[in-house]
Specification:
The structure is a single chain. It contains eight helices and six strands, in the order αααββαβαβαβαβα. With about 200 residues, it is of the alpha/beta class. It has a domain at about 80-170: Dna Topoisomerase Vi A Subunit, Chain: A, domain 2 (3-Layer(aba) Sandwich). The strands form two sheets. Strands 4-3-5-6 form a four-stranded parallel sheet. The protein has a two-stranded antiparallel ribbon with strand order 1-2. Strand 3 (about 80-90), helix 5 (about 90-100) and strand 4 (about 105-110) form a beta-alpha-beta unit. The termini are far apart.
Amino acid sequence: MAAPLSGPEIERLVQLLSRLPGLGPRSARRAALVLIKKKETLLQPLAAALEEAGRVIKVCGTCGNLDTSEPCGVCADPRRDASLMCVVEDVADLWALERAAVFRGRYHVLGGTLSALDGRGPDQLNFGALVERVKAGGVREVVLGLNATVEGQTTAHYVMDLISPLGVAVTRLAHGVPVGGELDYLDEGTLAAAFAARRAM
């Protein structure tokens, strides 16, 4: 058995970094080396920022977003259209829509998708709060901003079954050919969705 290349503290840093999305063991080792070499300018400020973030960031009790205030900045913004609600799987999806600046309503984060394989049923997701928010009134349209995966489609149908009886319009994001996309590079599912969602010019 080969001896460890470095001390236990460095190995622990590498192991923790390798748990981050997109970082395998090699990338984590390279990132750890950069952090250690730039201890004063990178490692120590990063450690302080992580500690501060862990202390002040909280989950919004209204929509499920992450922020330092309660309710979050999106829910507290009076300029947003409270009659429009976009349902997303994760906070990352909410942030992506905010970066694109294409939606000026409110959000609801489910915390994942329904998945029998992963053991995620309705009780593990934030469906109850969604129904309560819609029942409270003022919402005229619920937009399903769920991924075009099997789990995302299943979850979208489940949300439609929950919301439709409440007399609120339920819409979903269009799927199909991306802007700048070439047909030759698209998969069959994307092309099929594009044809199904075609509209008059």
